[in-house]
Amino acid sequence: MTSPIPGLVISDATDTNTLAFDLRDVLVAIAPKGEGLQWYVRDVDALGQGAEKLASTAQARSPLEFESLRDAAQRVNQVIDGQFAGFRGGCLVIAIEAVDSTTYEVYSSDPEILAALRSCFRCVEDAPARSFDWKPT
Protein backbone atom coordinates (compact mmCIF):
# COMPACT_ATOMS: atom_id res chain seq x y z
CA MET A 1 0.00 0.00 0.00
CA THR A 2 1.14 3.50 -0.75
CA SER A 3 0.96 6.30 1.76
CA PRO A 4 -2.24 8.33 1.28
CA ILE A 5 -2.07 10.45 -1.87
CA PRO A 6 -4.09 13.66 -2.36
CA GLY A 7 -6.65 13.70 -5.13
CA LEU A 8 -9.38 15.43 -7.04
CA VAL A 9 -12.84 14.52 -8.29
CA ILE A 10 -13.60 15.93 -11.75
CA SER A 11 -17.23 16.02 -12.85
CA ASP A 12 -17.57 18.53 -15.72
CA ALA A 13 -20.90 17.75 -17.39
CA THR A 14 -22.82 18.80 -20.47
CA ASP A 15 -26.34 20.28 -20.45
CA THR A 16 -27.66 16.71 -20.75
CA ASN A 17 -25.75 15.59 -17.62
CA THR A 18 -23.20 13.45 -19.43
CA LEU A 19 -19.49 13.87 -18.84
CA ALA A 20 -18.08 16.67 -20.96
CA PHE A 21 -14.65 14.99 -21.10
CA ASP A 22 -12.99 11.59 -21.12
CA LEU A 23 -9.66 9.95 -20.39
CA ARG A 24 -8.07 11.56 -23.46
CA ASP A 25 -8.77 15.02 -21.97
CA VAL A 26 -7.28 14.09 -18.60
CA LEU A 27 -4.15 12.83 -20.36
CA VAL A 28 -3.84 16.04 -22.37
CA ALA A 29 -4.12 18.04 -19.13
CA ILE A 30 -1.32 16.13 -17.41
CA ALA A 31 1.12 16.11 -20.34
CA PRO A 32 4.10 16.52 -20.25
CA LYS A 33 4.12 15.24 -16.63
CA GLY A 34 2.59 11.94 -17.80
CA GLU A 35 5.34 11.40 -20.34
CA GLY A 36 8.20 9.30 -19.09
CA LEU A 37 5.96 7.36 -16.73
CA GLN A 38 5.27 3.67 -17.13
CA TRP A 39 1.49 3.22 -17.30
CA TYR A 40 -0.66 0.29 -16.22
CA VAL A 41 -4.36 -0.29 -16.85
CA ARG A 42 -6.87 -2.44 -14.98
CA ASP A 43 -10.60 -3.06 -14.70
CA VAL A 44 -11.36 -1.11 -17.86
CA ASP A 45 -14.75 -0.95 -19.57
CA ALA A 46 -14.69 1.32 -22.61
CA LEU A 47 -16.38 1.85 -25.97
CA GLY A 48 -14.72 2.61 -29.30
CA GLN A 49 -11.77 1.48 -31.39
CA GLY A 50 -9.19 1.98 -28.64
CA ALA A 51 -11.19 -0.06 -26.11
CA GLU A 52 -9.69 -3.36 -27.24
CA LYS A 53 -6.14 -2.02 -26.76
CA LEU A 54 -6.96 -0.87 -23.23
CA ALA A 55 -8.68 -4.17 -22.36
CA SER A 56 -5.86 -6.33 -23.73
CA THR A 57 -3.26 -4.24 -21.90
CA ALA A 58 -5.21 -4.61 -18.66
CA GLN A 59 -5.56 -8.36 -19.13
CA ALA A 60 -1.85 -8.81 -19.94
CA ARG A 61 -0.83 -6.51 -17.07
CA SER A 62 1.79 -5.10 -19.38
CA PRO A 63 3.07 -1.52 -19.16
CA LEU A 64 2.36 1.18 -21.72
CA GLU A 65 4.30 4.28 -22.59
CA PHE A 66 2.33 7.52 -22.24
CA GLU A 67 2.03 7.98 -26.01
CA SER A 68 0.50 4.51 -26.44
CA LEU A 69 -2.02 5.17 -23.67
CA ARG A 70 -2.85 8.58 -25.13
CA ASP A 71 -3.27 7.07 -28.62
CA ALA A 72 -5.65 4.39 -27.32
CA ALA A 73 -7.58 7.01 -25.33
CA GLN A 74 -7.94 9.16 -28.46
CA ARG A 75 -9.68 6.25 -30.21
CA VAL A 76 -12.08 5.53 -27.33
CA ASN A 77 -15.54 7.09 -27.47
CA GLN A 78 -16.10 6.64 -23.75
CA VAL A 79 -14.36 5.08 -20.76
CA ILE A 80 -17.14 3.83 -18.51
CA ASP A 81 -14.91 2.45 -15.75
CA GLY A 82 -11.18 1.96 -15.49
CA GLN A 83 -8.05 2.49 -13.49
CA PHE A 84 -4.87 3.92 -14.96
CA ALA A 85 -1.64 4.31 -13.00
CA GLY A 86 1.63 6.00 -13.91
CA PHE A 87 4.88 4.95 -12.21
CA ARG A 88 8.39 6.32 -12.14
CA GLY A 89 11.12 4.11 -10.74
CA GLY A 90 8.56 1.73 -9.26
CA CYS A 91 6.79 4.55 -7.36
CA LEU A 92 3.20 5.54 -8.06
CA VAL A 93 3.07 9.12 -9.38
CA ILE A 94 -0.54 9.31 -10.55
CA ALA A 95 -3.68 7.18 -10.39
CA ILE A 96 -6.67 7.96 -12.60
CA GLU A 97 -10.02 6.27 -12.04
CA ALA A 98 -13.03 6.54 -14.32
CA VAL A 99 -16.12 5.96 -12.17
CA ASP A 100 -19.28 4.69 -13.87
CA SER A 101 -19.30 7.39 -16.57
CA THR A 102 -20.03 9.99 -13.88
CA THR A 103 -16.69 11.30 -12.62
CA TYR A 104 -12.95 10.90 -12.81
CA GLU A 105 -10.91 10.68 -9.64
CA VAL A 106 -7.26 11.60 -10.01
CA TYR A 107 -4.68 11.14 -7.27
CA SER A 108 -1.10 12.32 -7.47
CA SER A 109 1.87 12.95 -5.23
CA ASP A 110 2.89 15.69 -7.70
CA PRO A 111 1.14 18.99 -6.85
CA GLU A 112 1.82 20.30 -10.38
CA ILE A 113 -0.34 17.53 -11.85
CA LEU A 114 -3.23 18.42 -9.55
CA ALA A 115 -2.80 22.13 -10.36
CA ALA A 116 -2.85 21.38 -14.10
CA LEU A 117 -6.12 19.47 -13.71
CA ARG A 118 -7.67 22.28 -11.67
CA SER A 119 -6.83 24.76 -14.43
CA CYS A 120 -8.21 22.57 -17.25
CA PHE A 121 -11.56 21.55 -15.79
CA ARG A 122 -14.45 23.52 -14.29
CA CYS A 123 -16.04 21.16 -11.74
CA VAL A 124 -13.14 20.02 -9.58
CA GLU A 125 -13.33 19.15 -5.89
CA ASP A 126 -10.77 17.83 -3.44
CA ALA A 127 -11.01 14.11 -2.80
CA PRO A 128 -9.94 12.54 0.49
CA ALA A 129 -6.35 11.30 0.30
CA ARG A 130 -6.24 7.64 -0.62
CA SER A 131 -3.79 4.73 -0.45
CA PHE A 132 -3.31 2.36 -3.39
CA ASP A 133 -2.23 -1.24 -3.73
CA TRP A 134 -0.92 -0.73 -7.28
CA LYS A 135 2.47 -2.23 -8.01
CA PRO A 136 4.14 -2.25 -11.40
CA THR A 137 4.39 -5.84 -12.61
Annotation keywords:
137 residues; alpha+beta; 4 helices; 27% helix; 38% strand
Describe the structure.
The chain is globular. The two termini are 15 Å apart. Helix content is 27%, strand content 38%. It is α+β, with helices and mostly antiparallel strands and 137 residues long. A six-stranded antiparallel sheet has the order 2-3-4-5-1-6. It has helices spanning 23-30, 51-60, 66-74, 111-120, and strands at 5-10, 38-48, 76-88, 91-99, 103-108, 124-130. The model has no long low-confidence stretch (mean pLDDT 95). It contains four helices and six strands. The longest helix has 10 residues, at 51-60. Helix 1 (23-30) runs antiparallel to helix 3. The chain has one domain (5-127).
H/E topology pattern: EHEHHEEEHE
The biggest sheet amounts to:
6 strands, antiparallel
The unreliable regions are: none
- The percent of residues in helical segments reads 25-40%
Q: What is the β-strand count?
A: 6
Q: Total helix count?
A: 4
Strand order of the largest sheet: 2-3-4-5-1-6
Average pLDDT score = 95
Query: Strand-residue fraction?
Result: 35-45%
Cα-based radius of gyration, to the nearest Å: 14 Å
Distance between the termini: 15 Å
Total domains: 1
Rough outline: globular
Classification by helices and strands = alpha+beta
